[in-house]
Design a protein that fits this description.
By secondary structure, the chain is α/β, with parallel strands linked by helices. It has one domain: 3-Layer(aba) Sandwich (Stationary-phase Survival Protein Sure Homolog, Chain: A). 33% of the residues lie in helices and 26% in strands. It has 8 helices and 11 strands. The protein has helices spanning 4-27, 44-53, 101-116, 136-139, 141-150, 171-186, 253-258, 277-283; strands spanning 32-36, 58-64, 83-88, 92-97, 122-129, 156-161, 194-199, 210-212, 218-228, 234-244, 262-267. The strands form 2 sheets. Strands 3-4-2-1-5-6-7-11-8 form a 9-stranded mixed sheet, with helices on both faces. The protein has a two-stranded antiparallel ribbon with strand order 9-10. Helix 2 (44-53) crosses helix 6 and helix 3 (101-116) runs parallel beside helix 5 (141-150). The chain is globular.
């Protein structure tokens, strides 16, 4: 629970944000773009896509307080969440949330956005520092947020750059976003729609184009390094490598990235293996 003083500060900030939105909708109807990520609200990739999206609509963003990479579709159930307004400008409002990326989406759509009386026209999660191609889509907090946001009626995009560095060069990603955002805002697409978009490490002039492709078949094989703390208790560091089962498959996202293409993969939530249903009916 908030203290009395904290509640007053939060209520004031929240009220100002709401008034700001109402004022601007009176003068010009703008698309609403919701943004989240898993690297946290201070990450460079997040800040770059917020600035980019603000050219095309009103940005409401809720992102984790700290890095939440690898949280996938995790939610917080046994401790409270905190939501703080971090930035409130003419066209941009950014909140931090103490929970996971999916918590950010849920608290936005099921509390904050109804409080503001608005409904997004587009969802973006990212820009992630690191690829979410292939099996990474299952582990990714960025994609967890994108998938969750797609449940609420607007197109959703997970946007990632294949570069984990804090100071990664996002220029090629932003150049593509400048085409993607108005295209999705101007199209009447059937929902739910969720796209997993990965951008290779390259300058804009080195990008060969984009390819609509599929998820690569492959898996991570982990390795754990065991160490001991000063009290003699074992602890472990996770590492490993990705095993691509089809490196020559030109219709896959990993091939696209390797060959300097932007990989665009439409994804869905249904994990049913429909091809096995007849076999299982016979077996069971």
């Amino acid at each position: 629970m908030f203290s009395s003083s904290e509640s007053k500060i939060y209520a004031k900030n929240h009220y100002l944000c709401k008034i700001d939105y109402i004022t601007h909708t009176m003068t010009a109807k703008k698309p609403i773009i919701f943004i989240s990520n898993d690297d946290g609200y201070q990450a460079l990739g997040f800040r770059r896509i917020v600035e980019c999206a603000a050219k095309y609509g009103r940005v409401i963003a809720v992102a984790p307080e700290v890095t939440q990479s690898g949280k996938a579709h995790a939610i917080t159930m046994y401790e409270p969440l905190h939501l703080d307004l971090r930035r409130d400008e003419e066209n941009i409002s950014v909140y931090s949330c103490s929970g996971t990326p999916v918590d950010c989406v849920k608290i936005a759509y099921d509390w904050l956005l109804p409080e503001l009386g608005i409904k997004p026209d587009l969802n973006i999660s990212g820009i992630n520092h690191g690829s979410n191609a292939a099996i990474n889509v299952l582990y990714s907090g960025t994609m967890g947020a994108a998938i969750e946001a797609s449940f609420y009626g607007a197109p959703s995009v997970g946007l990632s750059l294949d570069d984990h560095r804090a100071d990664a060069d996002f220029d090629a990603t932003i150049e593509f976003a400048d085409k993607l955002i108005p295209a999705l805002l101007g199209a009447k697409v059937e929902t739910p729609l969720c796209l997993n978009i990965n951008v290779p490490i390259a300058r804009p002039e080195e990008i060969q184009g984009h390819r609509i492709c599929r998820q690569t078949r492959g898996f991570w094989r982990e390795e754990f390094f065991c160490r001991q703390d000063p009290r003699g208790r074992n602890y472990f560091w996770l590492t490993g490598g990705f095993c691509n089962h089809e490196p020559e498959a030109e219709d896959s996202d990993e091939w696209a990235l390797k060959n300097k293409y932007i990989a665009v993969v439409p994804i869905k939530v249904d994990l049913t293996d429909h091809s096995r249903i007849p076999e299982l009916k016979e077996l069971l």
